[in-house]
Amino acid sequence: MATIRTRSRAREMLLRLSAYLTILVALILTLFPVYWIAANSFKFDIDIFAVPPEWLPRNPTLKHYDEAFIQRPFLRYALNSFLVAVGTTIVSVVFGTMAGYALARFSYPWQWRKQISFWILSTRMMPPIVSIIPLYLFFNYFDMLNTKSALIVAYTAFNLPFATWMMKSYFQDLPVELEEAAIVDGDTRWGAFLHVALPLARPGLAATAIFCLIISWNEFLLSLIITLTEQSQTLPIGIAGRVTQYKTYWGEISAAGFMACVPIVIFAFIVQKHLVRGLSLGAVKG
Amino acid sequence: MPKAEKETLAAQLQPGGGVERWAERHLRFLMLAPTVLILLGLTIFPSFYMFYAAVHKISPNPDLPWEFVGPDNFARLLSDTQFHVALWNTTVFTVVAVTTEFLLGLGLALLLDKFIRRLTFLKTVLMIPMMLPPVAVAITWKIIYEPQFGVLNEIMFRLGLPLQAWAGDVNLAMFSIIVADVWQWTPFIFLLMLAGLASLPVEPYEAAALDGASSWRQFWDLTLPFLKPVIAIALLLRVMDALRLFDLVFILTGGGPADRTKVLSLYIYQVAYRFADPGYAAAISLFVLFVTIVLSTWFMKRMRLAE
């Protein structure tokens, strides 16, 4: 009996040890690439090219930040990214919240609720490359190429379905009785939504907005096609533009790339409780 | 419209809060309408427009009229070897990357579930890769893969292994893209599987333990069936994302070397812009759209996601 117990305890210890070891390895693998881009952004070119690599920047410098954000228009790109992300988020969250609420609460004739939910979800599955040709021709026709509004329109195409599904899932979690009580007390249906459901859904609303910001901030393909000017290009396009056939500006793209990651990491921690739901479009409640 | 309804509508539209009452009555449609209209405009309209473009030869010169060519662009799909290469590359990437991410993510979740469940901070740190801008991920891996001064070749050198060109090597380019994608997206599967495991009921396991079922049997007969809906969603989202792969390839390899990493999205981009043939690009896009719709509908119907 005693030997069995020691054996199972030993097995337990071994399992624990291997689990913590795995977590450690996973942490290193996760963080090293992020660390590496940050480290390179603070090195002089000659140190970036050092063989063997310089694991810690020996001679830290802000030279590449100056090159990217002062001498080259990366500050402008970042501002464009920010404005487009905010615009898209506002449009998507306002309309998505209303639609999400309607799909969570109201009944419709002919199974519309199911059909429309399904259709909205499937628009989210559409690969962006598929819509670029019509969008390009469309924006060209209306003289909207190289504008931030065109980007906001294009990004709404995949942020709005996301926001709708997220908000639908949050509203479905709220008890309907509180809204019913408000209506009994004389509030209108719209009033019950505005004064009762919406305040209760505030955490979900914030999480949805932050996810929309992240999705827009990260987008690359549509911006690559719609924008060609400094006044309209976003940060990812600016970074890609410094990877040319002849030369890659390692220091500059490291600095700009690292700066593009910083807000995302902050956002990730703000929405950490909502990550599962956000990443599964509200399908898995974590 | 029935007569009675028409009368009430007229009555409601009279001044004195009538419009508000009408809006209140139709609230369920009014709240849904903006989203439905926007999405109709942004997805359904482009799809039809693309069909229109796909049956034309479109000159890069915008002043020239479109020339109707009927099904020619679709017929080209059959004979265009570059398209076949792109289709094959996308398939290989999707199957290998998603399978690897799934097995790694599920394995890690099963191993670490008990230990990491309450460590929210640590979990969030592990989730960082998938939140990052794909362009930033791509340049990060570009630096790591760099043949002359990259970290990966330094490790190979220390281990006494032959140095490689990685993303620049004909045989390793696709592998390099897949590794970067696995790095970015395994956390996604891991996180969803952890959420699935956290919601498992306890009783069946107690019963199984009483019956003396091995942990392997418990996994196969209990855990896996319970996880099935979460697995389906995770796989659906990953497959849809893998089919649209663009950013990583655009920055890391540009589709090369020797077209080994040319995926469908990149090929459509090249046909539309470099070869200036939007009509044919629209035909390929329709093909991709068709595949996406078939795959996602099948998945979603099967898993009853819309309910």
TrEMBL record, chain A:
Could you list the residue ranges that cross the membrane?
20-38, 82-104, 116-137, 205-229, 249-271
Cross-referenced InterPro entries: BP-dep_ABC_trans_perm, MetI-like, MetI-like_sf
Q: What is this protein called?
A: ABC transporter permease
The GO biological-process annotations, alphabetized, read as:
transmembrane transport
Family designation: Belongs to the binding-protein-dependent transport system permease family.
Taxonomically, which superkingdom? Bacteria
Annotated ABC transmembrane type-1 domain ranges read 78-271
What membrane topology term does the record carry?
A: Multi-pass membrane protein
- Has keyword Ligase? no
UniProtKB/TrEMBL annotation, chain B:
SUPFAM superfamilies for the chain: MetI-like
- According to the entry, every stretch annotated as the ABC transmembrane type-1 domain falls at 87-299
Under InterPro entries, the record lists:
MetI-like (IPR000515), MetI-like_sf (IPR035906)
Which Pfam families does the protein's record reference?
BPD_transp_1
Q: What highest taxon heads this organism's lineage?
A: Bacteria
**Localization (cell):** Cell membrane
Could you list this entry's UniProt keywords, alphabetically sorted. Cell membrane, Membrane, Transmembrane, Transmembrane helix, Transport
GO cellular component terms, semicolon-separated: plasma membrane
Q: What is this protein called?
A: Sugar ABC transporter permease
The scientific name of the source species is Ensifer adhaerens (Sinorhizobium morelense)
